[in-house]
Automatic annotation (TrEMBL), chains A, B:
Domain MoaB/Mog: 11-170
Residues in coiled coil: none
Name of the molecule in the record: Competence/damage-inducible protein A
PANTHER family: NICOTINAMIDE-NUCLEOTIDE AMIDOHYDROLASE PNCC (PTHR13939), NMN AMIDOHYDROLASE-LIKE PROTEIN YFAY (PTHR13939:SF0)
Pfam families to which the protein is assigned, alphabetical: FLAD1_M (PF24102), MoCF_biosynth (PF00994)
Domain of life per record: Bacteria
InterPro entries: CinA (IPR050101), FLAD1_M (IPR056596), MoaB/Mog-like_dom_sf (IPR036425), MoaB/Mog_dom (IPR001453)
Length: 251, 251
């Protein structure tokens, strides 16, 4: 694997009891997985963790060492249960300060409505830089390789778009999806052989059911476009030999 | 906190590159979070991990020590990328065997259609017991405190329902949601005080936007029903004093 093909990795930490309790469905993982890949960064792990300093501090310390980038979502609002800034400051062993530029942004955004609660959103780990929030004022933060984003998807997405150019990605992972009208177990044997023959692609197999019939979506992934095409061609040949159809109606 | 109120915890490991890449949205977290709570078990952490033995083995070892129960979803089908059984066997340092009862179930379910690929689904870590799969034959597994479930939500849910009675839960976490017509920052100060006064409840604050107006859902959680009601009453009094409405149209 050449220098240019090194894999750059990221970890997402989704912070919030409301996700763990099943009350709220996370909507950030999918967006981040797709957008990171476009930037050549592989989302390699996601953790959903409670609003607990005891849990968050060691987790942030661990993943910020293991991955090139860490993103957190949630826990940065004006209420007592918003403890992300405190946890990340503790993880990097720096104090929490009031960030002067964040305060200025909040003053401009809220005017006379800048209550003490809202001013909490100017708090930052010492040494952090700001991530613009074009949606609702209160900025995100970056310290070392950790980006602190809002949990609200619209805000989080705007924050990601604002910093995407900062990321140093590797080669983006290319992928091709092939939906076939055969159950997984029928393609399994041939597929395992194709995987063995194409070491530099990763072949995933995902069953689906549609109108009472079982089918399989085969996803081929690689940083090497030529290798991707070669493996995909072998898969199409396998499916045809097995009497299956390529079901182009399933993306 | 009395003996009966000890907190029983669980960790969910969602296995699959397709979730990390953003191709597929997980639909098991919410179900498991809600159902575990009904059984008195707190979903305390979720990890989404790739189809990689190198990653999964140490993760399973870590979380099976840290939590009372571990659930895995995904990676138990008939194809080469289904490596969950191998990873969990390796985590517990036991061999993978063909489970005789699992084989019998597959023989009955598939009849003459039991291909070598499908027979892979009879593989189990040595010492594992079976979890019934009323939907599609291939059983789930349990070894020590780890339950191995399918990734397909309908199957996973049936498997959970089949084993729910085995779980030894603590007191279920009760909760009350109060939707108010005030932005988070307006309730923040009073809410922090209420949280301080009610140490045995956990108050979460979740902003929402509806028809262009900002509101907040306040969620009070406790294993103690009386404490829950007392805190909820204080919150209702706070909202009323601040001139807010209780928005009963938001669950």
């Amino acid at each position: 694997m050449s220098e240019q093909e090194k894999i750059v990795t990221a970890c997402l930490i989704i912070i919030g009891n409301e996700i763990l309790s099943g009350r709220t469905q996370d909507a950030n993982l999918g967006f981040l997985g797709r957008r990171l890949n476009e930037e050549g960064v592989r989302l390699a792990e996601v953790r959903v963790l409670p609003d607990s300093m005891e849990v968050l501090v060691p987790a942030v310390q661990e993943v910020s060492r293991r991955f090139d980038y860490v993103f957190t979502t949630g826990g940065i609002g004006p209420t007592h249960d918003d403890i992300t800034v405190d946890c990340i400051a503790a993880a990097f062993e720096v104090p929490v300060i009031e960030h002067p530029e964040a305060r200025r942004i909040l003053e401009e955004y809220y005017g006379d409505g800048l209550t003490p609660a809202r001013l909490r959103m100017a708090r930052a780990p010492s040494g952090a830089s700001l991530v613009p929030n074009p949606v609702s004022g209160a900025p995100g933060l970056r310290i070392e390789n950790v980006y602190i984003f809002a949990g609200v998807p619209r805000i989080m997405q705007a924050q990601f778009d604002a910093i995407a150019h900062e990321l140093s990605g590797g080669a983006p992972l290319l992928s091709e999806s092939i939906a076939v009208s055969l159950p997984e177990s029928v393609v399994a044997g041939g597929l395992a052989e194709i995987q063995l023959q194409h070491g530099n692609v990763e072949i995933g197999s995902y069953p689906f059911q549609k109108g009472g019939r079982f089918g399989t979506t085969l996803v081929v992934r690689s940083v090497d476009g030529q290798a991707l095409r070669a493996a995909s061609e072998d898969i199409v040949a396998l499916v045809t030999a097995l009497g299956g159809d390529l079901d182009s109606s399933v993306a």
